[in-house]
Amino acid sequence: DQQVKQNSPSLSVQEGRISILNCDYTNSMFDYFLWYKKYPAEGPTFLISISSIKDKNEDGRFTVFLNKSAKHLSLHIVPSQPGDSAVYFCAASSAGTALIFGKGTTLSVSS
Amino acid sequence: KAGVTQTPRYLIKTRGQQVTLSCSPISGHRSVSWYQQTPGQGLQFLFEYFSETQRNKGNFPGRFSGRQFSNSRSEMNVSTLELGDSALYLCASSLAGGSTGELFFGEGSRLTVL
């Protein structure tokens, strides 16, 4: 049973445009959500997070939106850059539990 | 500050053998988590250790085991290797665990089972 779902395996965007990566979750107990980025041959690195008491968190070009009623979160990257090309993982947790990851979305930004 | 170090980086084993992977967390981090990454399956949680105690465990068979030492270093072991165990095994450390803060990942140990 997959608790964190990223239904789009891949996304292609042109440089300068907006990239929107989506994530759905099924466990209503999740209260902390994160996005990680992974380049080939490297470990995932933390990008941005949001707690369930917020509906938006912004960090430079990256914004995460949380819709608790829909159990949905999204990551917006504006403007997208070729260096953003990577695999993006959505992750969620609740108190005392491990961080559960989705399967990832491969973002390709073309110049 | 040194990051998370995993050894070995690459290894090849044959079916039926066993393997031990090592992880040295960031200094001061007491939580170590292990994940398996395979194509199309994302990062699947194996187990989490905190202060030498297993705190959480994923849905993997008993062939997968781990432990944490008093210096927070961790090892995971896979016995009776199967072809499907071929994967990138990632270790991540944090101050108190994934539910309370971000995880810092190592570069992983890539295991190939022939």
Describe the overall structure.
The complex is a heterodimer of chains A (111) and B (114). Chain A is mainly beta. Chain A contains no helices and eleven strands. In chain A, strands 2, 4, 5, 9, 10 and 11 form a six-stranded mixed beta sheet that branches. In chain A, a hairpin with a 6-residue loop joins strand 9 and strand 10 (100-101). Chain A is globular and about 40 Å long. Chain A starts with a strand and ends with a strand. Chain B has 114 residues and is mainly beta. Chain B has strands at 5-7, 10-13, 19-24, 31-38, 42-50, 53-57, 64-68, 74-78, 87-94, 104-105, 109-113. In chain B, strands 2, 4, 5, 6, 9, 10 and 11 form a seven-stranded mixed beta sheet that branches. In chain B, a hairpin with a 5-residue loop joins strand 7 and strand 8. The N and C termini of chain B lie far apart (37 Å). The A-B interface holds A 6, 9, 32, 34, 36, 41-46, 49, 89, 91, 93-104 and B 4, 33, 35, 40-45, 48, 55-56, 58, 90, 92, 97-100, 102-108.
Please name the defining characteristics of this protein.
heterodimer; A: 111 residues; mainly beta; six-stranded mixed sheet; five-stranded antiparallel sheet; B: 114 residues; seven-stranded mixed sheet; globular
The total beta strand count of chain A reads 11
Low-confidence stretches of chain B: none
Distance between the termini of chain B: 37 Å
What sequence of helices (H) and strands (E) makes up the elements of chain A?
EEEEEEEEEEE
**Major sheet details of chain A:** 6 strands, mixed
What share of the residues of chain B does DSSP label as strand, in percent?
Answer: over 45%
Q: Which class best fits the helix and strand makeup of chain A?
A: mainly beta
Helix and strand sequence of chain B: EEEEEEEEEEE
Mean pLDDT of chain A: 95
Which regions of chain A are unreliable across 5 or more consecutive residues at pLDDT < 50?
none
Largest sheet: number of strands, sense, barrel closure of chain B? 7 strands, mixed
Q: Supply Rg of chain A.
A: 13 Å
**Mean pLDDT score of chain B:** 93
